[in-house]
Structures are given as structure tokens and as C-alpha cells.
Specification:
By secondary structure, this protein is an alpha/beta fold. The protein has 12 helices and 10 strands. It is globular and about 45 Å long. The chain starts with 7 loop residues before the first helix and ends in a 14-residue tail after the last helix.
Amino acid sequence: MGRGSYTAADWQNLRSSRQFDTEQNTTSIFRNESAENIFKSINISRRQSCDPDEESQATPIIIGFDVTASMGYLAKELAKNALHKTITNLLTNKLVSAPQILCAAIGDCKSDQYPLQVTQFESDIRIIKQLLDLYPEGGGGGNDGESYNLLWYFAVHHTTLDYFEKHKKKAYLFTIGDDRCHSVLDADEINKNFRSHSAFDISNEELIRQTQQKYHVFHIHIEKGIFTDREIFNHWQNLLPGCCAPINIKDIDCLSELITAIISITEGNSVNQSLRQLDQSKAERIARSVASICPPAEKKGLSF
């Protein structure tokens, strides 16, 4: 997948047809009342990111976002603003070649009916069209965690990337949310949510190690201004040291700038260079967030 190109005209047509300027709540933007079969993880054998032609290398980027409980504002921000701005920033600043984006709605596999929904890798307006077809279930179990680790498992076992297989380069994977991650993905959860037959539980540490073989893995933690913010951020820092960034819920309109800056830094640009490429008023608001990012030294390539 991933053929085509992203245009401002296509975005404006979609924005107009879906009445983004007037639609304010999540349910009016995401109109499905249940998950579509084509996006349910259990029905997906493989998502592929292929080079668009012999001259270009497709850069796969996975953006997974929490859709539990009150997280509808995050889905809405991605649909109405952040995803379009991220694509535009990547293309304008030529940070990566031929970006192909896959979106994933993440819930809680201990309580939700649809804990992982996954779109295709796309390079044109289908990125956002498919995002809009996901179902923000709004569940979660109040059990001190969500299932971000489902996306790591999916990335390891159910994606095929030319970027990795042919060019020996790492793709990008982001998770975004406001809670901890359940510490283990157990065998029953794996078998229930994927076309897999696992006899073993997998810890987050092992899943991250596997995922980092072919992806730069990052987490963006949304701070809500409550006493657990620091504790949850420390949880993520322990899991992904140097690859976790906080963002205050009041700055959620800067989410695209934060994603762009993280990619820019990982591609070898300095923090100052990465921030100068952005709208300066927003760059100032995410400077604290970016300061938490210190990706591995090998950055773009792989170590064999």
C-alpha cells in the first residue's frame, strides 16, 4: 500500500465534506458505531509499506492513539488538525522520504471489544479518510493501564516494510495517551486479538526490544494536570528511556509539531534546528517536551 500523493486540495475537500469547521464533538466526526472488520487486528494478516517507485524509499510511520474513556479529544485533534499538519510538516521540511502513515486506535484488551484497530500504510488523503473510519470505543477498564503493547506486537509480527527489509533502515512508531501500559501481553490476549498462536506471555521490555529492531519507538504522554502525571511519565521513561515526551493537555494543538520535532531529531538534526523548522510560537510550547528526547546513537541505520 501507500501509492499516491498528499495534496492541500484533497485535504480541503475532505475538511469541507466532513464539516470540520462546524462539527465539534467526537461522535459527529467519527461516525461509525462499531469497528469495521477491515480494521480489526484479528482480521489483519499483514500491513505493507512498499516503495512507491524504484527511485524513492517509503518511510513508514505508525501513529497509535488511546481511544479509551475521555480520550475522544485526542482522536478529534488528530482528525481535524494534527495528522494533516504532521504530514504537511514532513513534506515541507523534507524530513523523510515518501512518508507512509498508518493509524491505530488503541484500547484496553482486558475490557474492550475492539482494543486495536489498524488502518493501511498510505501516502495520500486516505491517511485521514481511514482514520475517520476508525471507531473510538471510549472504553477502558479503570485497571491502571491500557494496551499500548498491542501495537508493538502488531508492528513486530504483522507489518512488512521495504524500508527495513530492502534498505536496512528503521521506521517510526508513536503511541500517544495519558495512562500506563499493562506490563505484560499474555498469551490469551495475543491469541484473542491477532492471527497468532502464542503459548507464552510477553513482557513489555521484550516487546519493545523486538519492536526496536525495525522501528524507532516513541511514546507521547499527555499530562492532565493531576498528581499522577509525574508517576505515569516515570513509568514510560523506564520503559523507553530518552524516547518518551510529555505534553500538557492544554498544548494538544502542538501535537503535530512535537511528532515532527521528534522525527527531525532522530533523522540527525539538532534540537535547535528541529524547533526552528516549526511555527515559533508552538516551538516554544514544546521545547520542554523535546528536551526529554534522546534517541539511540545509531539513529537512522541498523546495527547488525
